[in-house]
């Protein structure tokens, strides 16, 4: 139903803009750090404390879950996208449920550019479009840091002009 409604609202079927490869690395790293390493560490610790069988379970767990995490990270990366479709900002993300955001550009009141030390080092930025309704804004995750201000300025012309430094020559 949602796919049909989006096709009706956005008849041009051009794909959304992709995200940099650093976003794929970020998803792989987070999957390994939050799924594979803790599970293997718990099993290894229990194996040292109780029975060596769990040591074998630890390396088997790591061998089995690593390709699954890499596949899910690749899927999450392939589902990332952003673009402008007429009067709408469109952003897509997700793995198990691919979420598509279609936000009226005229509703955006402000932008927030968020980074962490890790995303800054990778050259990624998360844009948050603030609107008058609701508590949080709407996020466009893991854009290239050098492209994010230009994209935000294109989505909402005039809103960021006083903050952007234009380079000449």
Give the count of helical stretches.
5
Q: Tell me the number of structural domains.
A: 2
Secondary-structure content class: alpha+beta
DSSP summary, beta strand count: 6
How much β-strand is present in the residues? 15-25%
Q: How does the major sheet shape up?
A: 3 strands, antiparallel
Strand order of the largest sheet: 1-2-3
Low-confidence stretches: none
Radius of gyration: 20 Å
- What's the helical proportion of residues? 40-55%
Q: Termini separation (Å)? A: 49 Å
Order of helices and strands: HHHEEEEHEEH
Calculate the mean pLDDT score and round it. Answer: 89
Q: What overall form do the CA principal axes indicate?
A: elongated
Task: Tell me the layout of helices and strands.
Elements: H1 2-9, H2 21-49, H3 53-78, E1 81-85, E2 88-93, E3 99-104, E4 108-114, H4 117-122, E5 124-131, E6 138-144, H5 148-155
Written description of the protein model:
The chain has 169 residues and is an alpha+beta fold. It has 2 domains: 21-77; 82-155, no CATH class. It has 5 helices and 6 strands; from the N terminus they run αααββββαββα. It has helices at residues 2-9, 21-49, 53-78, 117-122, 148-155, and strands at residues 81-85, 88-93, 99-104, 108-114, 124-131, 138-144. The model has no long low-confidence stretch (mean pLDDT 89).
